[in-house]
Amino acid sequence: MPKVLVVTSGKGGVGKTTSTAALGAALAQAGQKVVVIDFDVGLRNLDLVMGAERRVVFDLINVVQGMAKLSQALIRDKRLETLWLLPASQTRDKDALTEVGVAGVIKELRKTFDWIICDSPAGIERGATLAMRFADAAVIVTNPEVSSVRDSDRIIGLLDSKTEKAEKGEQIEKHMLITRYDPQRAKRGEMLNIEDVLDILSTPLLGIIPESQEVLRASNLGSPVTLCNAASAPARAYLDAARRLRGGVVPMNIHGERKRLFVKLFRRAA
Amino acid sequence: MTLFSLFPRRQGSAPRARERLQILLSHERSICGKSDLISVLQEEILTALGKHIIVSQDNLTIRMDRGAALSTLDIEVLIPHSSGMTVSSADRDFVKTLRLAH
Q1: Which chain B positions have a beta carbon within 8 Å of A157's beta carbon?
Q2: Nearest to residue A202, comparing CAs of A224, A176, A226?
């Protein structure tokens, strides 16, 4: 049964696009057929993070408005056969996105894909509400920081009231993904710890993505972090999270970098 | 006096963050969640009252307070003298408070 997943947060810059790309790739690496959709009309970036920026011809708005077929707008990933991207429009106005249009696109995608992952824009405006509108499940990306936690709380409220599922009186499945976590700082009491965030937001935890330089490196190279360096701490955390999304029971470890000192020195010299 | 006490370790700020969030969110949840209900109630009460008396939107106040044990819903309607109803001389003629168990 296909699943529509929205990756959302309210606050900008917490890692929605990074997480969409990484979870999408991780699910595709496990053989699932995945499409990631960028809902950030006017400020698209998922194409860039996925390394497909030069292959965009048609976009979501073109499809919604009937100017292009869905098959023309979908871009297949060069590394993973089962991973596809539906980019957002960079030039059009965000009001070009209509509820009926989005409903049609999602309905069509449900026929072919196992996972339809909607990368929400920041904020609570049209793009964000439409990204969550038809979702079966939500990944709420949160940094252990006051403004991010507050915005996540607001988004959880919207997920429980403004989605199609909520309006039908059904429960939307919610998962908390904590990103940019620094276990050392949390241990010293300098950063909200996992229990604090879960306590405040009372939403089940999907994964803990540690703060890592690998995330920036992956986006520099235009590759989801799970593909760019599958052995890195954030990649392992995303791969675990993807397994949990599929119903797997995976112990909740906070991954650290495995590299030993001489490996680091060697890499630097190389 | 030890050497360490000369350089007191800074207290972690996370507990303060947690406390501030808990206070803020308990307040915000009480407003955000109800905003729709309040506007729906406002409209429906005005329609119902409108069949009998003329009450403007400004004279209708609805407040909701969610507590742990008890939530209250206050509906206050000010009826103007020209409403066609026989009313007492006070400006605030009719105040009704409903109490709902949470």
Answers
A1: 29, 32-33
A2: A176
